[in-house]
């Protein structure tokens, strides 16, 4: 029981915070405007030099192993709907951690996405 | 709409389209590759080595990893200008793509509840997609 809760917590929190860190890293690089392959390679090279990127990717790795751990204890049809919470956590994190201005309309859309993801996994055969 | 705003919308949608194509394709290929390997039972270190060789000699696995790398690059690029609270829900469309791929390519049965879920996701993405992709200051 305790491990299950720990794994689910890590999936949602470490996964979301990892992606938020990765976003923050990419925001410090700034808007990519040149899409030629050589320019994209330069962007990726700059990205891996930002500490936020490493923190983000590490947290995403933690979330991935927590997912494997949770799947070894519980059915996938229980585990994955819980991850729908990540959409709410991500939007909240975008507001607080990245200073994004989330309008009421966007929140409504996020709520529908959460609901839809839950239905997709309830309807699993 | 100013030309720069239209441009920002267009490139955001193109990159999100790439994200929702590459991620499901990568996952489906990995899944196909692993199904070919069969159920992994870990009994001895030698057995683990054998599984390792089997996994990494599968072209499906390499193709899958390739698509997931492309997915990650597209995801990083779009996050260099768009809000995370825009990109994350919009990427949920990939659940719909997975259902389509599963249904039409792998002939998996999809329940009515699941199709309704996909529909609700798409509805949510449409609502999110109607907000401006970027609400933070330009750097």
Overview of the structural elements:
The complex is a heterodimer of chains A (125) and B (139). With 125 residues, chain A is mainly α. Chain A is 82% helix and 0% strand. Chain A contains six helices and no strands. In chain A, helix 1 packs across helix 5 and helix 4 runs antiparallel to helix 6. Chain B has six helices and no strands. Classes of the chains: A mainly alpha (125), B mainly alpha (139). The interface between A and B is large, with 49 and 43 residues.
What is the average of the pLDDT values of chain B? Answer: 86
Rg of chain A is 17 Å
> What is the N-to-C succession of helices and strands of chain B?
HHHHHH
Shape of chain A: globular
β-strand percent of chain A reads under 5%
Oligomer: heterodimer
- Record field, number of beta strands of chain B: 0
Instruction: Report the uncertain regions of chain B.
Output: none
The main pleated sheet of chain B reads as: none
């Amino acid at each position: 029981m305790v491990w299950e809760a720990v794994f689910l917590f890590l999936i949602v929190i470490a996964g979301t915070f990892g992606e938020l860190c990765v976003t923050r890293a990419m925001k410090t690089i700034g808007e990519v405007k040149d899409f030629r392959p050589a320019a994209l390679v330069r962007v990726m090279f700059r990205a891996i030099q930002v500490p936020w990127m490493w923190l983000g990717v590490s947290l995403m790795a933690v979330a991935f192993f927590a997912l494997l751990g949770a799947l070894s204890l519980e059915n996938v049809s229980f585990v994955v709907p819980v991850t729908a919470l990540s959409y709410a956590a991500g939007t909240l994190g975008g507001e607080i951690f990245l200073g994004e201005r989330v309008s009421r309309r966007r929140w409504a859309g996020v709520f529908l996405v959460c609901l839809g993801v839950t239905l997709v996994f309830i309807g699993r055969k | 709409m100013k030309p720069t705003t239209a441009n920002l919308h267009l490139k955001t949608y193109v990159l999100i389209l790439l994200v929702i194509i590459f991620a499901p394709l990568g996952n489906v290929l990995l899944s196909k590759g692993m199904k070919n390997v069969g159920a992994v039972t870990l009994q001895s270190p030698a057995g683990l080595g054998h599984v390792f060789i089997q996994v990494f000699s599968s072209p499906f696995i390499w193709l899958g990893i390739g698509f997931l790398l492309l997915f990650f690059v597209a995801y990083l690029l779009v996050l260099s200008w768009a809000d995370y609270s825009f990109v994350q829900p919009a990427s949920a469309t990939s659940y719909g793509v997975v259902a389509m791929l599963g249904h039409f390519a792998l002939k998996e049965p999809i329940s009515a509840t699941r199709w309704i879920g996909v529909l609700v996701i798409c509805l949510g993405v449409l609502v999110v997609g109607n907000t401006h992709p970027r609400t933070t200051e330009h750097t």
